[in-house]
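Researcher: Let's continue the batch. This sequence belongs to LEC14B homolog, and it's 474 residues. Same format as the previous ones, please.
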Amino acid sequence: MSTLFLHNRLTLESDRFDEVGSSQTSGKPLHNLEHEVAQLTKLRSAPHERLTQFGPGKRDLPVSVVKMLAGREGNYSGRGRFSSADRCHVLSRYLPVKGPGLVDHMPSRAYVSQFSADGSLFIAAFQDSQIRIYNVDRGWKIQKNIQAKTMRWTVTDTSLSPDQHHLVYASMSPIVCMVNVGSSQTESLANVAEIHEGLDFSSGDDGGYSFGIFSVKFSTDGHELVAGSSDDSIYVYDLEANKPSLRILAHTSDVNTVCFADESGHLIYSGSDDTLCKVWDRRCFKAMGRPAGVLTGHLEGITFIDSKGDGRYFISNGKDQAIKLWDIRRMTSKATCIPGHRSSEWDYRWMDYPPQAKDIKHPSDQSIASYRGHSVLRTLIRCYFSPACSTGQKYIYTGSHDAGVYIYDLVSGARVATLKYHKAPVRDCSWHPYYPMLVSSSWDGGIVRWEFPGNGEAPQPFSSRNRIWRRHFS
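Model: Same format as before. Here are the structure tokens for LEC14B homolog:
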């Protein structure tokens, strides 16, 4: 691909994106985020100052891709290449808004959709016990078709090990199953074609199937699992010892979501139907016997938490129809209780959110910012930061009960895109870690991908894409 051809194509696609972006965006910025995280985001997704000064054009407008490429070729920045922030500035302009292209359709509700860390694999889990692993590099060919065992209600969560050799999956049972996804067999029938090892999170004295697991995650080193459960607890499972190493009675209601704060594995974030986010430090938990801190602000239960990966910031999706951004340095030692702020008669599983509650703000809200527009009803809808490598985590995105996918600008709060295709709630969605592609999974059984430019063709293999992007944006 010649440099001139690439210049022309990027110019055309940039113009197309501007048109799409203006049509997709609804509403003005929700807030002006004046916090350290706003500056960090700009540093990771803004072009070099010298590139912004190069050539004609207004200084307050986004720097065009052609202008940046010309500045790089002329070594205007003095580096002769793009920095990671330069690359993020370019790639974050190309939102995955075109499409969709159908990946798969099943006669069952889709609950989970996740890319692997390198983007080569994609996992989708369905209510009828099916878990499918697609090889993205091979044109979305099914690499593993897993029939789950010990199922109760649905597959609530899955997690792929860091080495991508094993997958764990959970349901409304204390048994989490682990299957070898690196084996040669495509069809994995539990304990018939392959062994699905059962990891028992119960203590053995609480009635067996007395609780279910909503959320499960591998640690960065692959040696542990952390899980949130319907018995108001957080569990840590030691895979080498093959037993739970820690149980924390963490909340006063279901723990819908847990995750490690960073690669160290010391800090754990949890969110519950009791409306609270909590931070747990395993290094001092046994001595303290309580969380390191509590963050108050949601008016209803929390459905999902995603960490920024730096041990400081995370976002949470709430049944109060808002995503909130948190800085754990604002946490307090205990929650601030506001009697009567919740409606005991409202049930998100079958009722719409009360209109009169939409303008209520928690008087002790410790969050940095809130993002509204999507709807969180019927199921535990998930939200995420956009990828660090391609966008500098410049965006937040989420599924929605109204069958859409919403993308918000982290700093301004503006909705920059709304993806509409599905006919039922979108519980989960996943943004490729390096390529402008997003995949959504819905209760209508559909798994669809959104891309830029989204021409409907299968993407190039990851390794080839990576070489092309690095060649022209480094």
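Researcher: Any comment?
Model: The longest helix spans residues 3-24.
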